[in-house]
Amino acid sequence: MITIKKFNYEIGKLGEDLVATHLKEKGYYILERNFTCSIGEIDIIAKKDNILCFVEVKSRYNLSFGYPCESITGKKVRKIKKIALWYISKYKIKNTDFRFDVAEVYFEKNNELMINIIQNAF
């Protein structure tokens, strides 16, 4: 028997896989997937040109709980920014611009999906 928690985990994992593939197709180089440190986790860290992108992925199979990006709280934004600063410091990254993106994945009823990348989301 599959639980709601397990189902949501699987939807999230699938969404992250699809976004990573989408970003690669758009010319991004994936540096990290599920980067974790003592502060928390960032779903995807990618680079394109001279921009380092910290990407939070949110997936939905319906909109009854709102749009995916709406689930990102101020607390989550602050945590992602702290993790990003930790990452930049740890790897001594210099002379590189960075931004915070949100990737929304919508699973449609007719087995179609849509990926929406919101650049500079916060």
Automatic annotation (TrEMBL):
GO terms for molecular function: endonuclease activity; nucleic acid binding. It comes from the Bacteria. Pfam families: UPF0102. Keywords: Endonuclease, Hydrolase, Nuclease. Belongs to the UPF0102 family. NCBIfam families: PRK12497.1-3, PRK12497.3-3. This is UPF0102 protein SAMN02745207_00322. The lineage of its organism: Bacteria, Bacillati, Bacillota, Clostridia, Eubacteriales.
